[in-house]
Write a sequence for this structure.
């Protein structure tokens, strides 16, 4: 029904809408360069500690990271540490890096991860996405495989997705200070996340 190019365009627009959407809805305090630098120093050891203690923190309670705010993630992480008697040990680890507030650390980590994902998605989007979407709409109009009703429905869906993607992308550019703060640290952040794979 659709060629591979059109499917890729729609897939990329959907990814952008989802990823930028959750970043724009984040209501946590904006990141500062100092917080990012503290996180960069602490993250390798913290993530190693969390990995070592993962089995102790296994829980039936799961949190959807991509749909959760930094506050929700921080609250969940704190509850898991307390529930499994690891809160004090984790607090001591953070203090080695000058971090006094566990909740804020988890918020910072979540903001960094979510913003990094959104930035990566933005960078993966082709520059000419609007032209590609318009070409896909033209291809849809000329398709003999669809009824007029199907074409109209698909056109509405594509126009909605394109409008949402453009609106969310603009919101992200205008309102997400976190992404701007992360820009100078992207290589270091990527190295930390790559080490986790």
């Amino acid at each position: 029904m659709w060629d591979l190019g059109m499917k890729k365009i729609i897939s990329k627009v959907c990814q952008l809408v989802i990823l930028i959407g959750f970043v724009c809805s984040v209501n946590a305090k904006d990141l500062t360069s100092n917080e990012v630098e503290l996180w960069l120093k602490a993250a390798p050891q913290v993530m190693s500690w969390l990995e070592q203690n993962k089995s102790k923190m296994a829980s039936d309670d799961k949190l959807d990271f991509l749909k959760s705010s930094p506050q929700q993630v921080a609250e969940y992480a704190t509850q898991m540490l307390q529930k499994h008697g690891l809160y004090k040990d984790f607090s001591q680890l953070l203090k080695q890096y000058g971090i006094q507030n566990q909740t804020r650390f988890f918020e910072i980590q979540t903001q960094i991860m979510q913003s990094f994902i959104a930035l990566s998605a933005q960078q993966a989007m082709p520059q000419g996405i609007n032209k590609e979407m318009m070409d896909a709409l033209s291809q849809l109009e000329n398709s003999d495989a669809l009824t007029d009703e199907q074409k109209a429905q698909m056109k509405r869906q594509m126009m909605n997705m394109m409008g949402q993607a453009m609106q969310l992308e603009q919101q992200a550019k205008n309102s997400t200070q976190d992404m701007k703060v992360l820009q100078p640290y992207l290589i270091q952040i990527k190295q930390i996340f790559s080490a986790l794979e």
Q: What stands out?
A: The chain has nine helices and no strands. Residues 148-175 form the longest helix (28 residues). Residues 91 and 102 are 7 Å apart (CA to CA).
